Every structure is written in C-alpha cells, then in structure tokens.
C-alpha cells in the first residue's frame, strides 16, 4: 500500500490501487495531486450580488452586505425606514441596502438629527395689503382688515365698506337728534326756572271773539309782588281782570270813547 508512505500532496487524496496508487487534489485545490494549489472560488461569483465573498483554503465564505439579510447566497433588502431613523420633520427613503433622510419642505438640516423651521416670510412677498404669518414648515398670506382675497392678491372689501357707510348714515343723524333734544330740554328747564314764558305774551279772546286784552308778562307780576306791603301796587287796567281758566272770559264794558270803565 503505497499510500502508507503519503506520497501525495498535503492537499491531495491518495488512493491505493493494485500494485500502484493515485493522487488527486482535494476540492478547492488544483494540480496533479503531487502539487495542489488553492482555487479562488470567489472568482466564479458564487455569492449573491449583494453579498461579499471571502476566499479560504480550499473553500470560500459568502456574507450579505450591510442593509441586506440572508446566507450570502441569497440576500434580501432590509427596510431601515421601518425603524424611523430620520428626524420627526424629515422623510425617509429606503434604498438598496441603505436609506436616505431628507428634511421636509419648510425645514432645513441633515434630516437625521436636525431639521429646523425655515421662516419663509423673510423670503416671500405677500400682497401689499396682506400680512405674512410663518407656520411650521410653511407660511400664510392673509389679507388685512377691509380687504379680501387669497393673500397674494387683495382687493377692497366693498361689503364691509357698505356696512361702515350705513353706520355713518344712521349714526350721525341719530346723534344729532339726541343732542337737539338735550339742548331743547335744557332750554325748557332754564325758562321754567326763571318763570318766563318763552313764547311771549298770551292773547285772551273776549266773549265777542276779539283779542282785545293782552295779559302782562310774568316779569310785571313779579315786580308788583316785590313791593312793600304798606304800599299799594299801582292799579292797571288789567288788574281787575281775572282769568278763570280756558273757555271763561270776563265781560267788559266800554264807554263811548272806547276806554275801559269797569269790570262786571
């Protein structure tokens, strides 16, 4: 048995034959059995396209790349976005074996640890009659009071102007009327307090239907009342007249010359 003397290469197998032997290189090696060299199996791309091949003595190892899972001969993509690795204000896009984080519109940063709000009002222009309101990730153009539109275009609000005009039309006359009533009331109180008739002397009709007697003003009566008690007030033609109320008029006698004589 020639194989007992190990005539073959260390990486070969010896087979004893009748009066002879045979040397054959092991799997992963090539040669005549007496000389065997390693075969690089990775050159034949036995692994998955998304795996790496590591050649070893007489063999090889396939290992899935990062972002993939499997035995190296079969590798499937891992969806990293399921673990939400991006910022709360960013969007995650899964790629082949990887992922991408990008801040949402209106925010700026790396998408992973930082996404800060952008103040769009510093760079955008709303209408001249509108105000810009910055919001998280966006902005709002809002027409000012008295205008209507979408903020990028604003026009005068005629309906609101009409309400203001109606208020002016109704309000000014009403205020004027109130002021006039107040003034009239003050004038009335003033006249009543000083005991004067604001409308002038009164005419008392006689029984003949003529306005022959004119009553004296209250000022004359007040003057007579202020005289001393020892002094008799000066008699006048109208002192003997007595007014007994509406519809009652004393009768008068007249002489031939038309002068007042006596009161019946």
From TrEMBL:
InterPro entries per the record? EGF (IPR000742), EGF-like_Ca-bd_dom (IPR001881), EGF-type_Asp/Asn_hydroxyl_site (IPR000152), EGF_Ca-bd_CS (IPR018097), Growth_fac_rcpt_cys_sf (IPR009030), NELL2-like_EGF (IPR024731)
Locations of Polar residues compositional bias? 239-251
Q: Which UniProt keywords apply?
A: Disulfide bond, EGF-like domain, Kinase, Membrane, Repeat, Signal, Transferase, Transmembrane, Transmembrane helix
List where the protein spans the membrane.
166-191
Source organism per entry reads Paramuricea clavata
Among PROSITE patterns, the record links this protein to:
ASX_HYDROXYL, EGF_2, EGF_3, EGF_CA
Where do the record's region annotations for Disordered lie?
239-264
In Gene Ontology terms, what is one molecular function of this protein?
calcium ion binding
Coiled coil, from the record: none
Under SUPFAM superfamilies, the record lists: EGF/Laminin, Growth factor receptor domain
| This protein's name | Kinase C-binding NELL1-like, partial
Matching Gene3D superfamilies:
Laminin
């Amino acid at each position: 048995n020639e194989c007992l003397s190990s005539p073959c290469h260390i990486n070969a197998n010896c087979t004893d034959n009748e009066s002879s032997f045979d040397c054959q290189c092991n799997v992963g090696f090539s040669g005549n059995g007496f000389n065997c060299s390693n075969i690089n199996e990775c050159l034949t791309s036995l692994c998955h396209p998304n795996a790496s091949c590591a050649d070893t003595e007489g063999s090889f190892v396939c290992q899935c790349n990062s972002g993939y899972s499997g035995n190296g001969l079969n590798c499937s993509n891992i969806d990293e976005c399921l673990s939400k690795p991006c910022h709360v204000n960013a969007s995650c896009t899964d790629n082949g074996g990887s992922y991408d984080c990008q801040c949402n519109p209106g925010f700026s940063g790396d998408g992973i640890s930082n996404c800060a709000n952008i103040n769009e009002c510093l760079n955008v222009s709303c209408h001249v009659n509108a105000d810009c309101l910055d919001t998280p990730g966006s902005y709002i153009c809002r027409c000012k009071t008295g205008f209507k539109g979408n903020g990028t275009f604003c026009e005068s609000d005629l309906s609101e102007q009409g309400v203001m005009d109606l208020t002016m039309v109704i309000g000014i006359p009403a205020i004027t009327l109130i002021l006039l009533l107040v003034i009239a009331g003050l004038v009335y109180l003033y006249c009543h307090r000083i005991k004067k008739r604001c409308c002038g002397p009164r005419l008392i009709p006689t029984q003949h239907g003529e306005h022959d007697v004119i009553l004296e003003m209250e000022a004359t009566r007040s003057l007579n009342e202020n005289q001393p008690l020892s002094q008799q007030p000066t008699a006048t033609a109208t002192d003997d007249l007595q007014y007994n109320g509406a519809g009652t008029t004393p009768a008068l006698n007249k002489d031939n010359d038309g002068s007042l004589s006596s009161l019946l």
